[in-house]
Design the sequence.
C-alpha cells in the first residue's frame, strides 16, 4: 500500500527518512525510490538512474535561473528547455543521443510517479528536438517457434514458463519473474480481454496488454498464463518460489538456458506476431538474416500498399497505428521504439 502524501506540497509531499520534508530534488527522488522499492514497483538500479538524472536537471536548473529544489514546480516548458540543453550537449559531442533520451525519459517518469498522475508534465525526445535513437532492427532477432520449443524443453520449468509468457504477452524478463500470474489467471477465467502488468515494469508503470482477437493466439496466451500460475503455487510470483533475491534468480535462469538462446528474442516474436495479426503482412525485419538489409519503412509501406490494394498514405497510417498499439502493450510510450523489434 502506498504511503499517504500531501501531493500539493513541495516535492509532492515526499519526506526524508527523518520525516522532514525533502529540501532538494535529488533527496525527493531518493525518497520516491524508497517508496516504490518497498512496493517492489521499481528496482534499485532504476532509482539510481533517476537520482543521477535529477542531479543533472538540478544542475542545469541552478545555472539557468529555473527552480531547482522542487519537483512540483517543474513545468513542461522547463522540460523542453532542459531538453534543448541536452540537445546542445549531444550536438557538441559531450553526450550520447541515447543518454540524452534516457535522462529526459527518467525525468518524465519521476514526475509521473511523484505526482501519482498520468497528466504530469512530460516532454518526449521528439518534442525536445533530440536526434532519434538509431534503434532500428538490422536483422530478425525473434526466437522462432522451433527455437522456442527446443529451448523450453531444455530449461527448468520456471524459466521455461517465463519464456512462454514473454512470447505470448510481450513481457520483459523481470516482469515475467515478478508478475502474479494467479491474479492474471483469475482475470482471464472471468473473461477479461486485457491483463494488467504491475510488478517489475520499467519505471514502475502499470500497463495493459490486450489479449489477441485471433482465437489460436488467445488460447496460447491463456495457456501460458495458466502454466505460470500453476507453477507459482502459494507464492506471489515465480521469483518468489525460489526464495532468492532477483539478481540470483535471474543469474540462475540465464545459466540454465541453452547456448545461443535469448529470452529477449521472445519479445521480438510477440511484437512481430502482433504486427502480422493487426496488418495482415509481416514486419520489415521478419526473415532478414545478418548481412542482409531490412527494407526501409518507405519501401515496406509501398510493398504493403500493393499487397493490400490500398494507397501509400493508408498503409503509412495503418503501420503507425499498429506500432503505437504494440508499443503500449510492450511498455513503451513512443511507437518508434518498436522499430528495434519490427524494423
Sequence:
Amino acid at each position: 500500500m502506498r504511503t499517504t502524501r500531501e501531493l500539493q506540497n513541495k516535492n509532492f509531499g515526499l519526506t526524508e527518512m527523518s520525516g522532514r520534508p525533502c529540501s532538494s530534488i535529488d533527496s525527493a527522488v531518493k525518497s520516491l525510490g524508497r517508496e516504490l522499492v518497498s512496493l517492489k514497483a521499481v528496482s534499485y538500479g532504476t532509482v539510481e538512474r533517476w537520482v543521477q538524472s535529477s542531479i543533472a536537471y538540478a544542475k542545469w536548473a541552478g545555472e539557468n535561473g529555473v527552480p531547482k529544489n522542487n519537483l512540483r514546480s517543474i513545468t513542461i516548458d522547463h522540460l523542453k528547455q532542459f531538453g534543448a540543453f541536452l540537445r546542445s550537449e549531444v550536438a557538441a559531442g559531450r553526450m550520447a543521443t541515447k543518454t540524452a533520451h534516457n535522462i529526459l525519459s527518467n525525468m518524465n517518469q519521476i514526475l509521473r510517479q511523484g505526482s501519482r498522475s498520468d497528466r504530469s508534465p512530460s516532454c518526449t525526445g521528439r518534442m525536445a528536438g533530440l536526434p532519434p535513437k538509431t534503434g532500428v532492427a538490422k536483422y530478425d532477432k525473434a526466437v522462432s517457434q522451433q527455437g522456442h520449443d527446443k529451448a523450453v524443453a531444455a530449461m527448468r520449468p520456471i524459466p521455461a514458463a517465463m519464456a512462454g509468457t514473454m512470447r505470448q504477452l510481450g513481457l520483459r524478463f523481470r516482469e515475467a519473474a515478478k508478475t502474479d500470474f494467479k491474479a492474471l489467471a483469475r482475470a482471464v477465467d472471468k473473461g477479461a480481454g486485457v491483463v494488467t502488468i504491475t510488478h517489475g515494469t520499467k519505471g514502475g508503470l502499470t500497463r495493459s496488454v490486450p489479449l489477441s482477437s485471433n482465437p489460436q493466439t488467445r488460447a496460447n496466451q491463456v495457456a501460458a498464463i495458466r502454466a505460470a500460475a500453476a507453477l507459482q503455487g502459494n507464492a506471489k510470483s515465480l521469483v518468489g518460489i525460489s526464495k532468492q533475491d532477483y539478481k540470483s534468480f535471474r543469474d540462475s535462469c540465464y545459466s540454465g538456458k541453452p547456448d545461443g538462446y535469448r529470452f529477449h528474442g521472445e519479445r521480438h516474436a510477440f511484437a512481430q506476431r502482433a504486427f502480422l495479426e493487426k496488418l495482415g503482412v509481416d514486419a520489415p525485419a521478419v526473415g532478414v538474416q545478418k548481412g542482409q538489409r531490412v527494407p526501409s519503412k518507405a519501401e515496406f509501406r509501398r510493398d504493403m500498399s500493393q499487397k493490400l490494394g490500398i494507397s501509400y498514405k493508408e498503409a503509412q497510417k495503418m503501420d503507425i497505428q499498429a506500432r503505437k498499439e504494440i508499443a503500449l502493450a510492450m511498455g513503451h510510450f513512443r511507437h518508434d521504439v518498436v522499430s528495434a523489434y519490427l524494423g
Remarks:
- The CA atoms of residues 91 and 97 lie 9 Å apart.
- The chain has three domains: 10-115, 156-256, 268-342.
- DSSP finds 15 helices and two strands in the chain.
- The chain has a mean pLDDT of 93.
